[in-house]
Predict the structure.
Amino acid sequence: RIMPVRWSRYNPSYLEPEVKKELYEKPSEELTEEEREQMELKAVRPIKAAPPTLSSSVFTDPMISKFTNMMMKNGNKVLARSLMSQTLEAIKRKQLEKYHKAPENEKETIECNPYVIFHQALKNCQPIIGLSNITRGGKTYQVPVPLTDNRKRFLAMKWLITECRENKHRRTMMPEKLCQELLQAFNNEGPVIKKKHVLHKMAEANRAYAHFRWW
Amino acid sequence: QLERGCALHTAARDCQSSLSSQDVPAERPRAVFHTSESDPAKHTEQHEGRLYHIPLEEVKAVFPHGLPHRFQQQIQTFNEARVMVRRPALELLAYLKGSNLAHPAVRYVIYGERGTGKTMTLCHVVHYCSRQGWLVLHIPDAHLWVKNCKELLQSSYNKERLDQPLQASVWLKNFKTSNERFLQEIKTQRKYMWGKRESTEEGRPLGEVVEQGLARVRSASDAVGVVLRELKLQSPRGSFRLLVAVDGVNALWGRTTLRKEDKSPVSPEELTLVHNLRKMVRNDWSGGAIVTTLSQTGSLFKPSSAYTPQELLGREGFDTLDPFVPIPVPNYSPREFESCYSYYLERRWLQHEKAHTEDGKAELQFLSGSNPRQLDRLAGPL
């Protein structure tokens, strides 16, 4: 049997499901020409099944869902999602406690929104340049190479998760450790940021081989 | 949208009517749902849906145990303790205010679905009683006494029963913190022997019995039994009023998960703590009240959809508790939901940008079904 992993088995006439509420709430006068055509097409064409990750909730965030999927083990999405929500709550509690104890002038500097902290921490962990193995004349060289956005995000998330899984005490819970790591990454300190700097230094050291890259 | 408008309209009307009494001034529209009345005795229907403040020292003195875990975390995060005044609590307070203490103690059973606020109602009543100067006998969760017990000793007083030293000593410590002054005033009425050499004479203050229980952990359960007996005998005299507040009373008549050394199951009667507590919950004494809560969450061998007294207490428990006043606790009304939501907003607990919008609020109300626990869990990561 061929499972449709990378290429879709749907007939090309099938349309994607539309989840955004604002599009349906608009009265028909405000729609532009393309949108009007799209609505008419939806009346006749069949629609693909919506994937379980697609949600019409106002609180969904694609980065958080991607991170939850990467944390998931053996398909246990329920556990991964609860760990993620416990992490966000832990971050919020820590920051709020700091906020309430701080004097008035420092209160604006303390960031309490766990989503903002998460996004900023991920951005701080993303490497700018990566290394790739290229074999020339029998020897493999580590060549500095630019990374795409997707690859940068993936590496940042992967480093965070591996760091939390490996370098923690047996009795610490994952949300606690993740919360610590995210707060450290938000302040540009911690082991994940160090790993990023090590990668940058290696790329800088191997500058001479940059011309091996042909793409 | 209509009911939101209605809720705001009623809130605005109440705000205007309560401006005459010394409630929150109108320059802070968010604080409409707070009230400065921190004495539960003065809470009326006017305060329904509002949150009142308990000073932190009072929380430590009145509730050394008994508040739900999530609420304690909330107190620590927000640096303040705010409890919502709800209709079942107001009903109970009205009954307590009008009760005749010469008659036998009336039993009240607070029941409701999971996470609707039964324990918080109980804590509200306990706060009222401690403010009024009653002696509060608060058992935070009777389920903790029938499961997960590391040490079970054979009782020295009665060969068939089993003792639980750890749970008893923890309870005695918390009882001491909450009722310091009564322990000096109440005197024992007969001599009690603790083993062969130690004894407490007649006429000694009850504090000595508690100290004995804390010092000699082996006899802690017997100390608890003595305390309960003394309080029950002396309460009809009228020198103090006694409130017995038991959370999870259905544990006293269910099954336990404990086993004796020969792996035979233990039934609740064989535990000294449960045996003495059952005697306390019978209404053969006067001069106080018994307020209990049913709880499915900690209960053993009961389906998760069970919430009525009939299902959770079983036949034996229901017959023992039989003439009781049932107090149902529903989910949040739209007004209470508004109040809780604006409290979270004001305390910066809801940090997500979309949570401040109308859409976010409607989604929270739909997803939680106005259930307080679900709302709390949903608002955690947001």
Q: What stands out?
A: The longest helix of chain B spans residues 2-19. The interface with chain A takes residues 73, 76-79, 348-349, 351-355, 357, 359-360, 363, 380-382 of chain B (CB under 8 Å). The CA atoms of residues 56 and 80 of chain B lie 7 Å apart.
